[in-house]
Amino acid sequence: MMASSNKVDIKNWNSSGGNNNNNDSLTSPAKVKKFLPSVKALRNQFEAGKSNSRSETNGNINSNGNGTLSHRSSGSTSSLVSSSLEKTSSTNSLNSVSDSVENLLAPAFENLQQMEPEEPVEPIYNQFKKVDEELRELMSKPPSTTGWNPRPLLKRLYYIPEAPKIQSQGTTYINIEGFLEKLPSGRKKATFWNAWKRRYFVAKDGVLYYYQSTQTEKPSMKMPLMGGKVECMEPSMVGIDDGQSRDSKASAVLGIDDGKGHYVVVRCSSRQEAERWRRALETHTVEDFTSQYVQPWPMPTNPALLRDTLVIDLGSASVRAGVLASQATLPQVFLPSVVATERESRRQVWGFDALAPDVRAASTVSFPIRPSHKITKYSVDLSAVSSLLQKTFAELKVDPKNYHIQLSVPRVLNTNTQTELLRVLFDKFGVRSVNLTHQSILALYAYNATSGIVVDVGERMDIVPVIDGYIVDGGVSRVPYGGYRILDHLRQFLYMRNVSLINEVESYIIRQVLENICYCAHHYNTERARCTNNPDLYEKEVTLSEYFHTNDCPYQTISLDFGRFQATEGLFNPDAWGLDHPGLHKLVHKAIMECSMDIRKEMSRSIFLAGGVTQLPGLVDRLTTEIDNLTPPAIRPKVHASPYRYHAAYIGACVLAESPAFVQSRISREDWNKQGNAVLRKWSL
């Protein structure tokens, strides 16, 4: 049988292993040709006998001896399949693609979504060429914002919510342990060769372990129980299911899914013993979402709860900082990483004050942490970072000489940059010690996890697979496009609606539009067709008058329709942005495939989001659906989205700074003076 067009074959998934040469086996045109007939051949077949195919096709497409393409969409008709194939093959004319999309009904697209995950997307920039000359002449003299003070808007964009005063009590687990009889993994019946084995089981804090004996230190199995389902099929039989498989065999037996698609079966000594284990395991399967991520605490007022460590997160667009407490907190300082450098005195002003009208008039505004023609992807502007750190210490009202520093950076820095950064911190500020960590790694700590796929989308996209604290280098993807590229395309959509926002200060207005009315479409062409048929339902506006204290507000309101979802589509279809790198879901799938076969299922269910762009409505569902289309039917990916993922790197830095790993990895001033650059071996960015 042929592989489904919207799901890959489980054999291809397992056989690829860790071989780097087979990473693209699921998407390579050469590989697809071995299984699927060409789209052109299918189109010719349907054009020749379209009327016959309507009555004969029922969710399957037969090709001349090449096999059957089976689709899960039961409600789809052959005419829709035929039109979709014609649309897919007509790549020479983007206009014909858009015309065919607009003529289809909205419900049909919901079925075609899973059938055609690789549906072509028209580049968005083609629409920008249609701006007529009258609009260009009108926009040649846009309203001026020279005298506008953006502080009220910045206060809204850089607002730090209060952490809940009443913390979640979490789940009360009934921990249980004891000897049980176990079958080999994957076996459900005992045979002469696969007999019961006596093993020691421990259910503790939502995880089930088993050991070869009570003296064994390392468990032979570690299985998360949260989210599973415990049921008693008979008085003496209990089973636990993670939602993918179920066992209903054997008396006085617990069927426990180990998260790898098969059961680990254990047998209790009696029905009463099975009931006792069932009740205990039920407390571990309750899905408490607050336990899946670190929930920040309010900033303590008692000085005894504060530590001698400062947590600083240097981002391309913003800076977060605070004094470490006994529990992870939200940042105390949150400001834009923008600097205004005076043209004559070269004095630098950071944060909100840098965008004041009088300061902007005599200065040059820039973002020194953001990569530019002066800054490579492996370095930063150290003179600007030094000034920014000084601003941060002043905002925190602390003397850096009395503190250790946990520093978070957005990019991998080369050795020279790390050396110069240490020299600034030790020689200029005199800090006691420093630890440097990448933002994506810290985001993993914000989810109480040590293994998983970190999807960090801010000014750029970073996809980092981590297994037990170690990065899988082959699966790391760092794409220099993200939120800033969305703002660029959103600027063009606003320009087409007579709104001209050009300079860096006005970009914060665009960001306000992005955060309030933009979203990720579940299926782009479906959303576009619906918006074409009824644009009034999609049009939404943002009010700006409250951020202007004068009567000369250039734009009272800003409205969008198509641009609400078209500007963000490049995250999943970079073709829409005119780029050729893989989409976000394909980068995540690549990270999963780089992991060993035995943990791919676990990694696909451990996808953790971080960064401001991941807060876009619809992104979690879209990412889950797209990854589900790339994985085998037995694999159901799970995307974890903490409500505090905007500050995930800072929260994770707080967790790391409070752990013993911080003491082991930090570089002290004494070590720096003795060993110099050699101490950098402690760090792995």
From TrEMBL:
Chain ranges of the PH domain: 173-286
Composition bias type Low complexity, residue spans: 12-23, 58-96
UniProt-listed Pfam families: Actin, PH
Coiled-coil segments on the chain, per record: none
Region (Disordered): 1-32, 47-96
Lineage: superkingdom: Eukaryota
Leader peptide range in chain numbering: none
InterPro entries listed in its UniProt record: Actin (IPR004000), ATPase_NBD (IPR043129), PH-like_dom_sf (IPR011993), PH_domain (IPR001849)
Gene3D superfamilies: 3.30.420.40, Actin, Chain A, domain 4, Pleckstrin-homology domain (PH domain)/Phosphotyrosine-binding domain (PTB)
CDD domains: ASKHA_NBD_actin-like, PH
Family: Belongs to the actin family.
Protein name: PH domain-containing protein
